[in-house]
Amino acid sequence: MTVFPSMHSRRLLGASVLTLLLITASGQLFADTAFRYQIPVQPEAASGYQEKPGWATSSFSVAAANPLATDAGYQILKAGGSAIDAAIAVQMVLTLVEPQSSGIGGGAFLMHFDGSKVLAYDGRETAPAGVTESLFLDQDGAPLSFMDAAASGLSVGVPGVLRMLEEAHSAHGQLPWEVLFAPAIILAEEGFAVSPRLHTLLAGETALKANAAAADFYYDTDGEPLPVGHQLKNPALAAVLKQIAEKGSKAFYTGGVALDLVQQVQQHPVYPGSMTEQDMAAYEPVVREPLCTDWKAYRVCGFPPPSSGHLTIMQMLGVLEHTPAVEAPLQDGLPSEAWLHQFTEAARLSFADRALYIADPDFVSPPGGNWASMLAPDYLRERAGLISATSMGRATAGVPGPWQVSYASMPEQEEYGTSHISIVDAEGNALAMTTTIESAFGARILANGGTDLPGGYLLNNELTDFSFQPADADGVPIANRVEPGKRPRSSMSPTLVFEREGGELVASLGSPGGAAIIHYTARTLIAMLDWGLNAQEAISLPHALSFNGPTFLEADRFPESTIEALRAREHEVTERDLTSGLQAIQKTADGFFSGADPRREGVVMGD
Ligand code: GLU
Prior knowledge:
The protein is of the alpha+beta class. The protein contains 17 helices and 25 strands.
């Protein structure tokens, strides 16, 4: 696939230009810098399943879910920016061009490696001080439907991504903060081509049209979604980003932008939320110690709670380590029926523990006082012993260690949306960042920052990642219930892998996909690091998963014989689209080899 045919001719830009002034269409002047953003020739983006070649680079690489966003990161790296600099530029462009998935109205988890230390930056949204545990219950005490809860003011958490990026930039940035906003501001002012995926998701969307600002902005007067290739300008977003570029994140968390956000939430016509300006001003990112777990010859580092990602992935991989190895996990290039059985059984066991134990660590203590209890080899061996030749159907949680309080399991709920970014720079910094506004188009509220201009950014519906039900039928509380100031449990799994001996970086990866992020990431780790596939091959392999109920297989990717064999083992098999958005960068002898998901529009660039 050709992406940005003129890329090679543009490679000398940036680093070779020492001092340039950057002036946007409206006359905005950025500081002197070696960086001058060039709007790329707009690509023909993928729609549906599109084979991707994988990309070899020698010194740096950036992988993101949209070619314009990847290119912004590429140009920043080219101009001497660090991995975090590039991630900020990528995130701002994603806010504009992939508004359905992530943006400044949402939250993110960032794993950062500076060549010696790994840190986990938590920019997860936080519940306002005014919420109660019955946030998503109706007057009769029954849970709202997912869509009613999501497309509302109730579901909006205090966004975290900007303050988190600002904190990471102050520690690891090379280029000035304001410069990193230039690509998004220029594209927002000059316009970008609506991609096939954005068009498709707009076409399938009804709740977004109930928001007048979004209906005017993303649809024509007949209610038809903007066509593919439509040059869309977003003046409101450009104006908001300029304020943040100049003044830092306080221009978002206080003042007119924050006031507008709070009004949008409080004045939702059907389900108003409680968020206040104090909630906005009080938001703080958390820098956490990552969880790093040995697996085979590797040390896999991932996000601790409030994400369930790393713990659940490593439970799955650990259970499989204690299960008799399948002789031929790949047959004719596809995961075999015997391996799929073990993988989905390991998922059942791990999802049962996830539902009981994992929530915001400021509110819930881990079993045995340490999350590592859930990954203890003896415990995982015991869990693996529950796997037999036929499916267990539904697993119950185990007991990894004594727990102070007794909680009930959280029922499985819907999760959607999201974008993943992987970057390595030429200095040896690496990051994996998964970023989200939760479901596609988030809370379906387009906020314009109080600018009175068309467009803007979408608010998240992250609070629907809490359990709607605060307790089970016997009144036993659920660990991940709604509480003021709490961060909802996540599945996001930004992952950095290192050599167990020597500590060299091996890979950066992650994916969107709701709770299925966990299976997508686990399977990609296995395919790359155990089966020896390259990053692209590993990403492209068909998916299979279980959330501790039916077994889901990616539609039209497995032969009938595999489906029948799983049914014979008592799996309740359903085929469906499993739209991962994996991005992975793997270290090779000569540099890096990277892959982007054929199921979405992502690409990789680098030198
Ligand atoms: N909100 C979800 C989470 O944080 C992610 C949603 C998605 O990727 O689809 O786990």
